[in-house]
Amino acid sequence: MSGVGEILKAVGDFGRFQKCLVLLSVIPCLSVAFHQFCQLFMVVEVPHRCDTSWILAVGPNLTEEEQLNLTLPRGPNGHFEQCSMFSPVDWDLDSILAYGLNHTEKCSSGWVYPSEQPPSLLTEFDLVCDRKDLNDIAQAIYMAGLLLGSMIFGPLKLWGASVSSQCSEEGKGSTPEQEVSLILTSRIILLQGKTAVSFFLSATEWIGVSSRPNAVLTSHCCFAIGQMILAGLSYGIRNWRLLEIAGSAPMFALFFYIWVLPESARWLVTKGRIEEAKKVLQKAAATNKCSLPPELLEQLKPEKEVRSGSFLDLFQKKHLLKVTLIMSCAWFVNSFVYYGLSLNVTNFGLDIYLTQLAFGAVEIPARFACIFTLQRFGRRKTQAVLLVLSGLVCLIITGIPEDQPVATTVLATIGKFAASASFSTSYVYAAELFPTVVRQTGVGLCSVSARVAGILAPLVRLLGQHHRAIPMAIFGSAPVLGGLLCILLPETCGTDLADDTGDGHPPAQVGAGAASAVGTWAASTGGAPWMCWGFL
Questions:
Q1: How far apart are CA 323 and CA 316, in angstroms?
Q2: Predicted local distance difference test score (pLDDT) of residue 420
């Protein structure tokens, strides 16, 4: 691009300047992880019952036990029903005691919760009984916001998005109404998707091709660390408002350094702002303690952006059509099982805080492990086996009794490991399967399919009302089928990257590794930020 690549090599692939940019992108990355799963700990199930204080008007001296015995029916297990009550009547207390109450109805006057229970989204918004589904619906809206936020807000300035995001986060912590909270939730993630993406783009466009895989791996690990931090924060802070504020507060740090973040030199050259590009390149070189020859800077010339392949290009060739459909399916089922396990952290039976900590911690070795498996066993086998393994784990969970929480949690953790490693594998595999001219479009389509799966995952959990095994059976079946489909894809380990769509198969083996594949893909897509966050 008009000498930018050569100048960036002179500046340094991964010097002090680039390391600072990666470090500054940590806070938005951690914040996305926190807000993506924090709702699980704000809507923890607590004992509840219908509010039957109406009977106190005719029997003010009744004890709580007498009140409940007169106004609440009992279930088959002998416990009071949580979502139904005896219909109020106009009788006096003696008549009620003599004849009893027989007709039941749904809770009409709200619910009562344990007085020692800290405030939560569940207790304040009554997300129980018929309103319980709103929790999963809100999570689906949140996931939809991730997709829309990454795509719609791409052209916006970073500072505007981050300021709005911070205001929305703090506003959510103080809103009194559920409808307002849902609106702010969708607004938060729309803007957070843009903020995190912008930081990651700024970092990756300055980093050399050989070091870009390390930056991508860093973002993956930061997301895992963010999940672990969530476990600690939610354990120590049980008040949902304080938890929301504590998780959002670090975003205030953006105000102290967002104004000094450099523009992308590539973007400045594309826009014809050559002098600004020269200044920022000289600043980067000075930070890395190197100098740029004046004649090298003079090579910068305005150039139009290179047009990538169109969406339709992916469906005009038979071999590309197969790759597009199977890889989109693989990303879909990968995201499906990943969120299917992650969002069920409260249903495995063990302490939810320890389970969340384990779920976050297991992602770090999973990301690193896939590097070695890709080189040892190849892309196709690794992708297929990891998907099938994650699916089989979910299917096995459906047959484990509810009184075996340890076995369930261990299997779920194994499934999370496989799903996380499979996601990292998907980036490498997709980068090598799609030719350069349609690589950005192809991987982008795969990312969109993964986002759609993230939207559907919390809605599938609603089927658990009919039988607890149904959601896990669906989460398990999909990746097994997707993994088997991956067998139909060509092996790309050790092959060069295709540049055009003319070949029906990957080029001859020349020894290209996974790291170079990711680096070349990142270079060809200009960072492709909204794709790089497909796993979130």
A1: 12
A2: 92
